Amino acid sequence: MKIIIAGGSGHVGTFLARALDEEGHQVIVLSRRTFAAPWRVVPWDGRTLGPWKEQLERADVVINLAGRSVNCRYGARNRAEIMNSRVDSTRVIGQAILRARRPPPLWLQASTATIYEHRFDAANTEATGILGGAEPNAPDTWRFSIDVANAWENAAREEAATNGSRLVLLRTAIVMSPDRGGAFEALLRLVRLGLGGANGSGRQFISWMHETDFVRAVRWLMAEEAIHGPVILAAPNPLPNAEFMRELRRAWGVRVGLPSPGWLLEIGAFFLRTETELILKSRRVAPDLLLKNGFTFQFPTWPEAARDLCEKWRNLTTRRAGNSRDSSSPAQAARELRRLNQQ
User: Fold this and answer.
1) H helices within the chain, ranges in order?
2) pLDDT digits (tens, 9 = 90+) for 10-55
3) Is 2-178+209-239+283-307 a CATH 3.40.50.720 domain?
């Protein structure tokens, strides 16, 4: 298959491109920066039509993951960049599909499970989920994230209504990968430093997905032609933060982790230039559409996923230490992860 990944130089885009490339697909990444990789990298600005649009001709699918990282403080400038990078890239992808002579029939568009309400009582699903933004006493930063998610999805819907592609909105939970720069590495760092206890109250739910199942779900959505609209990408077993961190400590082999109360997290987030929403909001979602249509998870529960990720992180770190000169390049990372997956 010919697969276009817009914004494919980020954390999720890199391991997705690597997996699809290893399966023998023709992978083309659209990126604001050029870099060496086993797949083709084509420059774009994420805002305007340019020569890159020719890559969509005869493509089987375009996957848009573009958007500024939300791991930052939500000041006015960052808010504008977070919003505009998502909406602008989505609209220009839609315009490129419309102008293509032989456009891709499938458009997989990134979204986020953060679009749902902060809740503890029941899991949000595609059919019964409550969209967030109206929760009492919710911080302004939480409402901003939901505003971004709605604007992101609305832009895709408007463009797809014009270009006629099959649009799937990927309402994705936190994807866990042993690669550098992801959420798993950040959480594991806390455990390794002895700080891997409950965050805040510890009651807030964490919805997550192993990278292997994320790739498998993307591949499954390519084949399931009847599926369209919002799809939750998350493991079927979310769990409270305190339990999540306990299982991660157990997988790493650490018995005790100091808890982090909410006030301490606020101070830490300020100095680390990030937001506590990323860890304190209760994201409880369930992938009903995947399950009801026959998708099976390789890692449905967190304990087994955590053990696998810890083992791969250890092995990957050991190999990086032995070959540090170019270990940060996607090409080297692809070779290392290929060896790990074959073990």
Assistant:
1) 11-22, 76-99, 140-163, 183-192, 211-223, 241-252, 262-272, 277-280, 288-292, 302-322, 330-341
2) 999 999 999 999 999 999 999 998 889 999 999 999 999 999 999 9
3) yes
The candidate with the shortest Cα–Cα distance to 30, out of 59, 71, 66, 60, is: 66
- Is pLDDT of 72 > 50? yes
- What's this model's pTM, rounded to 2 decimal places? 0.91
Residues 6+ apart with CB under 8 A from 307: 251
Separation CA 33–CA 163 (nearest Å): 28
What sign has the CA pseudo-torsion 121, 125, 130, 135?
positive
Residue 60: count of CB within 10 angstroms of its CB: 14
Fill in the DSSP letter of residue 130.
P
Which residue, chain included where needed, has tokens 């799937």? 168
Cα–chain center distance at 135? 24
Scanning the structure block, which residue is given the tokens 């498998």?
216
Which tokens hold the place of 68? Answer: 């500024």
Structure letter (DSSP) for residue 71:
-
The residue with tokens 């568009």 is 109
Q: Per-residue pLDDT for 337 more than 60?
A: no
Nearest residue to 185 via CA among 7, 39, 15: 15
Q: What are phi and psi of 185, to 5 degrees?
A: -60, -40
Other CB atoms within 10 A of residue 318 CB: 10
SS3 256: coil
Q: What is the DSSP string of 17-63?
A: HHHHHHTT-EEEEEESS----SSEEEE--SSS--GGGGGGTT-SEEE
Label each residue of 157-168 as H, E or C: HHHHHHHCCEEE
Distance CA 137, CA 272 (A): 24
